[in-house]
Design brief:
single chain, eleven-stranded mixed beta sheet, three-stranded antiparallel beta sheet, 4 helices, disordered N terminus, signal, Peptidase A1 domain-containing protein
């Protein structure tokens, strides 16, 4: 794998990372959550609404994504190079990119015909920090308390900051003896204790429950990942092989009838750009247990094979800048990741893409 030298900030928080060789696989989806949760007797798919939080300038410049915000003054060449190199390193670490090519491996469990599901839950999501992150409400513990967690299809763990999740507030939290949580993300690392508790996620009429969901309580968080007053942590939606502990993520462990989810990401309205930073904006829908067919035109579905059960990694069919095609230099794989705003790729692919953009 050739070194990654340039990064393109995406307009939305759904990022695609191109790699000529990535040892893991991935695919993702997200939505939003209603404040109230009711256990369903016959659980099926749930859609959870998302909301968007509008940040202050300091949050934009130093937030978890570590991106350069829209409207920021032009940086010097040295600052741009430093920014690009930093995020190149973050992407290589997050996706465990090797220095040389490796053959593609395909997921033997892939079934392109599995496009239907009996029931589902719709969870509203929030758009946070100007299309930087999408947040869903999750209930954890006994009695259940609601927390805003970042929906991340690029990781598999569920963790909360220790200042947000007080162990004494839940009678069902059980710490795992001698277990340490220490995970490296693209923009920093998180460490703390491990345990398990009751986790609920869904909408008013249908809620999915994981009675003993592995969760981490983080006491040390890299500054670039530090949670804001409104966000408590991260809920991972990738596969178990990426987890920092030997435990499946919520979407694979909860009482969901069909192990699928769908994500509709809603952009922040221009009219909301200048509202209070404490306001969450509508951010779309997370559908648990299936897909929401009302969000796309019937017959427009396109089944894409997931190459491995780690990241949501798929083959990229093509790339264009304007009306000009970009040479992908053979087969390229793309990791679909709602937890980052970056688009990155091999040197020659990104260089050619920029060459087709006037003024780039």
């Amino acid at each position: 794998m050739k070194a990654w030298t340039r990064l393109l900030q995406a307009a939305s928080a759904l990022a695609i990372v191109l790699a000529s060789s990535v040892p893991t696989a991935a695919a993702a989806a997200a939505a939003a959550v209603e404040p109230g949760f009711v256990r369903s007797q016959a659980p099926g798919p749930i859609s959870i609404p998302l909301r968007q939080h509008v940040p202050q300038r300091s949050e934009l410049e130093h937030g978890p994504a570590g991106i350069r915000p829209r409207g920021r003054s032009r940086s010097s060449k040295e600052e741009v190079v430093h920014w690009a190199n930093t995020h190149r390193m973050h992407l290589r670490q997050k996706y465990r990119l090797p220095d040389s090519s490796s053959p593609l491996r395909r997921d033997p469990q892939f079934d392109p015909t599995a496009l239907t599901s009996p029931a589902k839950a719709e969870v509203r999501m929030s758009n946070y920090r100007h299309d930087s992150s999408w947040i869903a409400r999750v209930q954890i513990g006994t009695p259940p308390r609601s927390y805003n967690l970042l929906v991340d299809t690029g990781s598999s763990d569920c963790w909360l900051g220790a200042e947000k999740f007080q162990l004494s507030n839940s009678t069902t939290f059980l710490q795992t003896p001698n277990a340490i949580f220490d995970v490296q993300y693209g923009s920093g690392n998180v460490s703390g204790i491990m345990g398990h508790d009751v986790v609920r996620m869904g909408s008013g009429d249908v809620t999915f429950v994981s009675e003993k969901q592995a969760i981490a309580v983080a006491s040390k968080i890299t500054s670039s990942l530090s949670t804001s007053p409104q966000v408590a942590g991260i809920m991972g939606f990738a596969f178990e092989s990426l987890a920092g502990v030997d435990a499946p993520p919520f979407w694979l462990q909860a009482n969901i009838s069909e192990r699928r989810f769908g994500i509709y990401l809603q952009r922040q309205l221009t009219s909301l750009l200048n509202v209070s930073p404490d306001i969450f904006a509508p951010g779309g829908t997370l559908t648990l247990g299936g897909i929401n067919s009302s969000l796309f035109v019937a017959g427009s579905e396109n089944a894409v094979e997931v190459l491995e059960r780690s990241y949501w990694l798929v083959l990229l069919d093509g790339l264009s800048a304007g009306n000009q095609q970009v040479n992908l230099s053979g087969q390229q794989r793309a990791a679909i990741d709602t937890g980052t705003t970056l688009i990155g790729g091999p040197d020659e692919v990104i260089a050619e893409m920029y060459s087709k953009i006037p003024g780039a």
